[in-house]
Structures are given as C-alpha cells and as structure tokens.
From TrEMBL:
Keywords: Cytoplasm, Nucleus, Repeat, WD repeat. GO terms for molecular function: ubiquitin binding. It comes from Cyprinodon variegatus. Residues 366-463 form the PFU domain. This is Phospholipase A2-activating protein. Coiled coil: none annotated. WD repeats lie at residues 147-179, 227-258. GO terms for biological process: proteasome-mediated ubiquitin-dependent protein catabolic process; ubiquitin recycling. It holds the Pfam family PFU.
Amino acid sequence: MASSNSFKLRCSIPGHEMDVRGLAAAVFPEGAFVSVSRDRTGRVWVPNSSPDNGFTEMHCMTGHSNFVSCVCVIAPNDTYPRGLIATGGNDNNICVFTLDKPQPLYTLQGHKNTVCTLSSGKFGTLLSGSWDTTAKVWLNEKCMMTLQGHTAAVWAVIILPEQGLMLSGSADKTIKLWKAGRCEKTFTGHEDCVRGLAVISNTEFFSCSNDTSIRRWLVTGECVQVYYSHTNYIYSLAVFPNGQDFISTGEDRTLRIWRKGECCQTIRLPAQSVWCCCILPNGDIAVGASDGIIRIFTEAEDRMASAQDLQAFEDELSKATIDPKTGDLGDIKLEDLPGREHLDEPGNRDGQTRLIKDGEKVEAYQWSVGDGRWMKIGDVVGGSNQQTSKSVVYEGKEYDYVFTIDVNEGGPSMKLPYNVTDDPWLTAHNFLQKNDLSPMFLDQVANFIIENTKGHVVGPAQPSGGDPFTGEALLLDSSLSNAGKGAYSSAAQRQTSTNIYFPKTDGVTFEQANAPQIIAKLKELNEGAPQGQRLSEETMESLESLLLVVYGANSPEPPPSLQQINLLWKVCHWPEDIVFPVLDILRLAVRHPQVNESLCGEAEGVQLCNHLLSLMRPEGRPANQLLALRTLCNCFSGRHGRALLMSQRETVLSRAADLAAVCNKNIHIALATLLLNYAGCLHSQPDLEAKAQCLSVASRALETVQDKEAIFRLLVALGTTVASDQTAQDLARSLGVSSQISKYSTVSEPLKVGECCRLVLKELH
C-alpha cells in the first residue's frame, strides 16, 4: 500500500493528567475536538498554525466530582449556535457546557451509578447509558423516559439518524433496539460485554466487545459480518464518512484501520489501554489512551509529523514493555523463539507481530506495510516460562503482578500492581483510595489478591475471563365522528375553522348503552352462576334501579345512595367470566358526580384503579378489557376521577399500552380515547415526562392499530400533546412520529383522518 494511504502520527497532545476516556469532534471551531479524562476535566482542542500541525487547548471544563468517562456534542440550535458539550461521569451526573464557560450550563441528575456513554440526536435529544443498567432519554434538562431491560451495565448507546430508533449495548452481552421507549428487538451474538456502537446508516450499525470481535448488524436483527483482528478487549469504534470503512481501539494497545472489511493498518501505541477514538472532519483520527496522551494520526502527507518526531514516537514505542499476561502475544517459550535474522523476512500483513530473542531478552516487532519494514514495539517481560519475581513493569516500576480489575458490573478496567512482599489488605486499601472506589470493596479486592498469589510464585496468566470482577457480573364533538361510531360524545364545539380537531381538552366519554339488554344479560348470568356467587333478588333490584339513575343523563330519579354504590363495587368482584354486565353498569355509573366522588376519591380510588388494571392484563378476557378501558375513560368526566387517573398515569398507561397488541378494534378505540383524555388534561401543564409517555404510547399503538376511528383519536391525542409546546414537539420529532404518521396524510375515507394528520405534521415541522 502506498504511504499516502497509511496513517502516520500527526502530533501528540499531553493535555490530561490521567487516562483520556472520551473524544468527540466539535461543531465549532472548525477542526476542533473535545476530550474528557479521569482527571475530572473536559478540554476543547483547536488546530493551530504552528509548523508541528498541533492543537491548542481553547477551553477547559470542570464540574464533575469524580472521573469523567464519556462525551458527546449536541448539535447547534438557535439558542446555542455553537452547539453544546455533554459529559458523563463516575459521580452519576451529566454536565452540559457551552464553549465559553468552564462551569456547566446545567447538570442532569437521575442515574444511580456511573454515566459511561452518551449520544446526541436531532432536536437536542440526549441518550445516556449507565452502570445502573438503564439508559435515559433527555430533552431540555428533563428526563423524558428511562429504558429498562438490560441486566448489567449499559456501556454503549447511539441514536440512529431516522425513525426515532435508539440502540444500547451492555455488559449482559446483548444489544437492544428501542423505539418510543420500548425494546423492539434484542441482538445476541457477542460472548462478552458490548463496549461500543457506531452508526453505519439508517439501517446498519457496528458493535464491538470484550470478546475481541466487531460485528456488523442490520436493524432488522441479522448479524451480516464479524471482524477479527484485535487480541484483547475492544473499547471504541468510529466510522468514516463513506459509511463503510472504520477504526477501532482496545486493550491490545492498538488503533486499527479497517477498509473494505479488512484490517489494513495496525498502529500500536505506547500505552496499554486505548480507550477511545474519533474521526475529525478532515479525515484525521484522534485516539485517547491510559497514559493521558491524545494522539492524532493522518494520511495527509502535509500534516504528518516531522521525520524527527516520527522517530521519537517509534523510539518511545520500542521502549515499551509488554506483559504477556494480557494474552496479546500468546504463550511465549524463549527456547522456541527465532533470533534477529527472522526480521529479514517481510511480513504478510500490516500489524503482524513477530517475537525474536536477543540473548535472554524477548523483543516484539510489528510489520508496517506503508514503510515496508519491521518496527520494534517493545520488550516482552514476564513470559509464562519465567519464574523470576519482579517480572511485570507498570508505570516504570517492576512488580510480581499487575492485575486488571473491572469494578461494578463491567466498570472501567483498572490496573492493580502487587508484589508478594506487600500486605494485600494495605494494597487493596490504597487501590480503592487511588481510584475513588467504595471501601465496601476492600474484602473482595484483598481476597482476590490473596487467592491469585498463593505460593508466592509468578505463575501462568489467568485465562481470559478468569477474573471474578469482569463485566459478566457486578375528543371531539360528535359532529367530527362517524355518526354514533365508537359510542362517545362531547359537549365541545369546533374550535376554529382551520383546526377543528385539537387541542382537545375536555374528556371524551362512552355514553351509549342499552339498559334493558344489560339487565337481561345480568339476570341470565346470575341464574347460571355458582350457588355461592348468585346475587339475591334484592341485590338485583338495587343494581337495576342504580342503572336507571345513572343511565339517563337528565334522570329525575334521586341520586344513587351510598348503599347502592357500595353494592356495585362489591359485585364488580364477581367471577371474571360473568362480571362484564356489572362492569357495563360501572362504566355508566362513574359519570355520575356522586359515584365519581365515592369510587374515585382518595380512599377508594386506588383500589378501583388496581381492580380495573387487573381486568386489563393482556391474557384477560376481551370484554373485560374493553369495559375496564371505557370505565377509565368515563372517570375523566368528574374532578375526582381526573385527579385519580393523573396520579396513577404511569401505571395506567403502561398497562393500557399492552392492549394495543390485542386484535380488537373496539379495544383500540377505547385505548386511543384513554390516551386522548390524558393528553387533554396535560395540554396546559409543563409535565414533560407525562407528555413523553403519551407520545411513546401513541407511537407504539400506531404500529399495530388498523381501525381508522382509533387512528383518528390517536392523531388527535398526538396533536393535543404537542400543540403549543415546543419541547413536546422536539421530543415527538426525535421519536420519529412524523415519519410514522405521514402515511395517513392522504387518507380520504374518513376525511377527518387525513385532515387531522396533516395538521399534526404541520405542528411538527
């Protein structure tokens, strides 16, 4: 390969005091990038005009009380035309910075453990992943939704460019695809923690893992290619603008460049852990490592470092010491190794390593295709055949052991050096203090040292994965509806000649009923009921008179008595196979002010809610599911019912959303109506988390609902949720609502579906 196609060092930036854990290309200034480090800072670097093609620190950001572990750039908007910078840390917080102040503009709190990955999307959406096993979606300083489903740390997240799709990768070895807050698909194939994700296109992505592989996936679930070249954990990935070629970094001290599916160049670094990488707008590569240095590599000859600096980098690499216990070089037997003459033979591929013995020393070399020669990459110490002590060099000192410790369900790898003459308890104590880790790990770390140093002899390397700390682990007025369809009505009038559909702020109820038919069915079922469940004549008469009172909207009958209401509540617990006519009476009764107050009040309301939710479980009877949904809708007709349902919103909507999968158009209409009533109550409120749930449930329902009346009500619910609320509109866009509903914009039968859809789309554009 011609040298112009090989990447070489451009410059080294010794800008941090500890490991560089995250990098991201900045929007402003041109050519700039951001770095974050375990030294608790973030820094913005801009290219300078000096002959060495270096970078100058433009801005330093502080605000985290512990290590900073990840960074991403939030795209510019009218308020922040230079964009914003988000950083996540071991203090469980996300800090968001402008480019002109060292302190955070604001801090996002909500995760219960280290925030280790961030990704930004359109309209200011931010996605975070944490060791607390969750991912969270943020917008305008608020957590919109929490993505729950992984069983171990979430190490990687990305937002796909279209359709509101999000991905998360975890120490539980899986990748999950999320849409509108719901897990749509789980990708399995990796055999260890998933550490990095990168977007290829709207329909494809890469993942990398501790299992040393990189995988290429379709969002539909298929793994279309697996790439092998790394010899240890792979921590990060970045894709070139062509969407095909990419780079990767890992614990094997390398940056690898991949073209046309092959690893075409391996650049070894004088640092054990190459934590992160990013591709700059001009095609140069930035990498951050455990030695606190950022290195920039370029294939543009006019930006390459001078011959003197390239030689200095090579010299630094040649002086590195390689611990074979990492497994990078395989098992080493000194007597089997060739001598220096072995370097006269050219290598087969870029990055190929070759070990030679020089007297009693073992040296490692790597083949460079670009230069056509073997480059020394270090001295190998502590081979598995060597039983001498002081065999591993760490930070310039020799130790009997250097353990790799992964803390807290796949937490960041940390090095623990140890000599057999040291006190394991004191060593464990110092290790925890140095790394700001909880003292609760003291026994665990000390016992691990003791267990792995029995006999005081340096033995063979632990097999990969043998370390117990690895991440395996720790609506509408009736004139708008088809006549009578859906059996609901509303007293509202058309609002304006341009938008008669939303916002819809008064409750939509299910009024229609055939009282004689309900009573006849109740009597029929009562006669066939088991002896112990049969209702007395007196009870039947009481229910019949109650129905007559609540059925007629302008009934001259006296209001229901407390005794009648209590009796209705009791009979609602009839066996599930015969209770539905009682639920129909309840559905009509909760519209009455006194019943609404009595059954939805503070004392009884939660019991009513829980009982209806139990009838709505997915495996329940469709008739009961339908009537429970309609009863909840009708509860909105009274002040006490509205208060009850708003207080129970999260639980009610979560259970109701599951019924979108039931193939029943009447259930779908009732579900859409319930959502619409919630949207109406939330319209004038700044409760973004609640609106986020409404948008999420509507989006999920639209994937399965076919009935046009149900679709219409879902569209009105969406319109009501986003009307006059810029943040809700941004969230709807980020969830891909526009693309999801656009197909309804041309519906002409009924006309209201197409009209309402076009108005919602107009609101979102």
